[in-house]
Amino acid sequence: MPSLKPVSRALVVSNDAAWLEPALSGLASASARLDNPFGIAFVSARTGDHAMQTVKADGDLQLVVIDKSLAGLGPGQAALDLANRINSWRPELSLYVVLSDDERAMVEELVSHAVDGYFDRDEPDYHGWFRILSAELAEKSATPFYDALQAYVKMAKDSWHSPGHSGGDSLKNSPWVSDFYEFVGENLLRADLSVSVPMLDSLLHPTGVIATAQNLAATAFGARKTYLATNGTSTTNKIIFQTLLAPGDKLLLDRNCHKSVHHGVILSDARPVYLDSSVCREFGIFGPVPKATIYRAIKENPDAKALILTCCTYDGMLYDLKPIVEAAHKAGIKVIIDEAWYAFARFHPAFRPTALECGADYVTQSIHKTLTSFSQASMVHVNDPEFDEHLFRENFNMYASTSPQYALIASLDVGRKQAMMEGYKLLDRILKLGAELRQKINSTGVFRVLDIGDLLPDEVRNDGVRLDPTKLTVDISKSGYSADEMEQVLFDKYNIQGEKSTFSTLTLLLGVGTTRSKVSRLCDAMFRLAKDRRRVPKQSYRMAEVPHFSRLACLPRSAFYESGECLYLLDDDGRPNEALTGRVCCDQVLAYPPGIPVLVPGQVITPPITSYLAKLLKGNKPVEVHGLADIDGEYAVRVLTQEELEAAPSRSLFLQDDEKAGDGDRQQQQKVQQLEQLPVPSADSVTEEVHD
Ligand SMILES: Cc1ncc(COP(=O)(O)O)c(C=O)c1O
């Protein structure tokens, strides 16, 4: 096993040889004589450009010391200029500037947020400098919660508190369940502790090691405040809504947002304004909401309190966020970005800017999805200048378990440390592996990794959308295998499990745990499968068009909490039930894939919606449909009764003019039918387009 001691390079930049040589040898001798747990070794550069080359190429670089002598804009200014350049490329690096005593007065003027500290050129105390650099790395790489957890476990205290397994003691001598002890390991059980241990702080009221871990995370991710969360981004999205939105407040949201966002709408009693996302029907993949749609929604809803978008999308599509955030801010709208799939972006310039760097007020990240943390370990980053910390805390505590899993918190500490200390290096490796994989898969001539041009729906082609290269969407349509068959063969024969599939694509995620061996095995499998390709049937499939959003008749919460009544989706002849037309749905109904809600609570049901659902359920390809009721083995939709609808407190917000005038229900039904007969596909055309 190779040594796992870290290597940390420190770059000293100066064009003054008379200063540089003694500085380098003084620092090297200090590193040899003093304790050097991070393996700091010094290298040099003579110019700013040379320094930048090293910053880009050396993944083990942790520190840069810049001498004021750099030729350029005046004493010290060139050094700070370089510090800013380095910072915008790799913000995680620690930067020190060396100035003379007589320039000290300038420091305040020159001070740059990029710089972590200054050394005095006239006081070349290399031992002292080395100690400071080493301490800087100790601070950055600290894992305060994980350290305290380890320390506590090592103390071997007797447990007279929850959890009931008492560090695994209930398991280890049991003839029935000791295998679980062996399987998960002693440390995981010993570290499964509770708020009864004060030295481990409290996730619900952090003042000690968890507070310190949160501060370190905020620095690492570039936030004013960061919160560690153990209930996933599914929960943190809801916490933010409940902090920002009072009942009835308007929220602009991508209709394709994760279901937790839609649940958050119900819980916060917000008034949603749904924005239809773009869709690439050829491959069954949803893209961003068109910029024009977002700008229009901002213009038409200046009273909206918040906008939430997913960036990147599940398939890796990234908005050009900055102008969108600016437009929202101009209208006084807070911006929440669901970065569940993009937590690593801060640590390599190929992926930046992050949502926070684009000015987002709240960012939620599933650290567990793409970095090294256990499932459910997430973070919320806050940059909102008007952040109401007290309210956020109250909402956080309302959703958080009072028994958070401590291994998850420790894994957030470790995930953040790894991203900070070696994220650049790991991501650089992933980018190279991804490019190699892409090239090899394409060289099969049968499989093809789709690029942004293939995936971008027409309506967002000019929106500056980018693609995250760690998410590979492979077109398998020429192989003759269906996606389900392909996934099964990869699993059974080649021991490979991908992320997801559509009818013609397979998605593979590269991550910090991707190894060269896994890449080789995948390439081998793809080559063999390409050789075994089958004759491809002539017809080509397109995803059925998800019906456009119809309209709300009341707030989602008002509909969700009513009892409602259930109406069959199909009539006695097996046709879409016309009695559903004009009725108001109580539940969120979504088909997976694609995962976009076809109906949300409070939404008026239209004929294309019933046809679409009926066709999905009758198709040959099994589709999961969530939110339908089961009445005697038949699918049914829970809808508001007329009395419930009329009594809904939020009803008046949505009354159409003709409904206000009376005779509302019948007129509303007629209107919906007329409207829906115009541009949307008929039931039959939807039918033909569904892949089955
Ligand atoms: C866009 C998006 N947001 C939020 C979530 C929920 O994240 P978590 O699994 O951390 O609860 C997911 C999960 O897949 C997601 O895709």
UniProtKB/TrEMBL annotation:
PROSITE patterns to which the protein is assigned, alphabetical: OKR_DC_1
Entries under InterPro entries matching the protein: Orn/Lys/Arg_deCO2ase_major_dom, Orn_Lys_Arg_decarboxylase-I, PyrdxlP-dep_Trfase, PyrdxlP-dep_Trfase_major
Entry GO MF terms: carboxy-lyase activity
Entry keyword set: Pyridoxal phosphate
Pfam entry (one): OKR_DC_1
Keyword flag Hydrolase: no
Known cofactor(s): pyridoxal 5'-phosphate
Protein's UniProt name: OKR_DC_1 domain-containing protein
